[in-house]
């Protein structure tokens, strides 16, 4: 296994050749940023790696791939830098190194999350509430999930601060944020250089499938988060505790988000299994797949909980769903989830350029 220094050196070698060639300048945001440099410090390479969305179009267009002696594979080189940088920047770093490359640890952490919730359901007395609160009191849910929500925010915040310092980010203006969020919302870098999509599935086939899958996951997650936020406001500010009806705002947002999460994660797993692993970071394949599966299970278990919430299965489904959510939040800073934050930071830094 390559060290972080070796990964950076290989990416530097390939970036210098690409900088001399310049054939792929219009493919994505990586190449204008790459061609703006004469030499590549470690921070430059980290920034380029997090701008890269691994669409692989540049590889199939390149005349210097194997069997040429230059043996370029820029998507893999940047994927390795990206993966290694996430481990180096993670807080705490040991957790980043453990989870980034180990899908089994993700699965074990998920099982532990389930077990804790099952234990809580059995140990805590019912408070006589309605719906889910009849199985697990509201205060107990808050006590469990508030720290689990705050921890990843602190961890990711520290990691992004390290990233910003490493890439030489400057004070952020509103225009930088508008440009970066606009690109993220459209998944601009997954459209390909000519807007035909990327080559993730097949070298000669352009497709928007991966962009659409990412959009479904992103907007599904945001809708689920919005549902939780609205329910929180309704509970504490408006005195309207759960359960909520089918046509209430929390349910409309949550069910829509859950459907998008399940569809998007399913599509991403299908695409990932069909893709050529030689263009990504091979050691992280299992962990990435496990985390996408976990996120999809969060959406699926939430939908099942709503559908069967009035049956005897409700306590078990509630424990499974909340256990998955708990595992998701605690693992978020050390898994594939972190890439969204790093790529957004990279887009902000690129907007400054």
Beta strand count: 2
Major beta-sheet overview: 2 strands, antiparallel
Proportion in helices:
55-70%
Q: Percent of residues in beta strands?
A: under 5%
SS summary, helix count? 14
* Total count of domains: 2
Low-confidence stretches: none
Mean pLDDT across all amino acids: 89
Give the spatial strand order of the biggest sheet.
1-2
- Cα Rg: 22 Å
Task: Enter the CATH topology name of the largest domain.
Answer: Fumarate Reductase Cytochrome B subunit
Query: What letter string, H or E per element, gives the SSE order?
Result: HHHHHHHHHEEHHHHH
Protein name: Citrate/tricarballylate utilization protein
Keywords: Membrane, Transmembrane, Transmembrane helix
Could you describe the 3D structure shown?
It is elongated, with a radius of gyration of 22 Å. It is mostly helical and 353 residues long. The longest helix is centred in the middle third of the chain and has 30 residues, at 138-167. The model has no long low-confidence stretch (mean pLDDT 89). It folds into two domains: 4-87, no CATH class; 91-352, Fumarate Reductase Cytochrome B subunit (Up-down Bundle). Helix 3 (42-51) packs across helix 14 (338-352), helix 8 packs parallel to helix 14 (338-352) and helix 11 (249-274) packs antiparallel against helix 12. Helix content is 67%, strand content 2%. The protein has 14 helices and two strands; from the N terminus they run H-H-H-H-H-H-H-H-H-E-E-H-H-H-H-H. InterPro entries: Citrate_utilization_prot_B, NarG-like_sf.
């Amino acid at each position: 296994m390559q060290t972080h220094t070796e990964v950076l050196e290989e990416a530097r070698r390939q970036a210098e050749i690409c900088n001399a060639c310049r054939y792929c300048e219009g493919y994505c945001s990586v190449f204008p940023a790459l061609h703006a440099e004469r030499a590549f410090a470690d921070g430059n390479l980290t920034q380029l790696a997090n701008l890269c969305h691994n669409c692989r179009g540049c590889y199939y267009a390149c005349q210097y791939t194997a069997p040429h002696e230059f043996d370029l594979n820029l998507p893999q080189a940047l994927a390795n830098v990206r993966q290694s940088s996430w481990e180096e920047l993670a807080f705490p770093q040991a957790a980043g190194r453990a989870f980034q490359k180990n899908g089994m640890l993700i699965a074990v952490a998920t099982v532990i999350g389930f077990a804790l919730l099952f234990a809580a359901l059995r140990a805590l007395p019912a408070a006589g509430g309605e719906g889910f609160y009849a199985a697990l009191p509201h205060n107990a849910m808050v006590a469990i999930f508030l720290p689990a929500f705050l921890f990843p925010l602190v961890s990711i915040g520290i990691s992004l601060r390290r990233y910003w310092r490493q890439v030489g980010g400057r004070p952020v203006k509103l225009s930088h944020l508008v440009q970066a969020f606009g690109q993220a919302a459209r998944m601009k870098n997954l459209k390909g250089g000519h807007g035909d999509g990327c080559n993730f599935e097949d070298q000669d086939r352009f497709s928007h499938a991966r962009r659409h899958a990412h959009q479904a996951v992103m907007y599904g997650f945001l809708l689920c988060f919005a549902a939780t936020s609205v329910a929180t406001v309704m509970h504490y500010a408006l005195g309207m505790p759960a359960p909520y009806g089918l046509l209430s705002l929390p349910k409309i947002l949550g069910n829509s988000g859950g459907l998008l999460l399940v569809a998007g994660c399913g599509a991403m797993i299908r695409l990932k299994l069909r893709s050529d692993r030689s263009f990504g970071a091979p050691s992280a394949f299992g962990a990435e797949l496990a985390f996408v599966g976990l996120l999809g299970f969060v959406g699926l278990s939430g939908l099942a909980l709503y559908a069967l919430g009035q049956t005897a299965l409700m306590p078990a489904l509630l424990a499974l769903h909340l256990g998955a959510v708990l595992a998701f939040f605690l693992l978020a800073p050390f898994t594939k989830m972190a890439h969204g934050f790093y790529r957004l930071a990279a887009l902000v830094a690129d907007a400054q350029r």
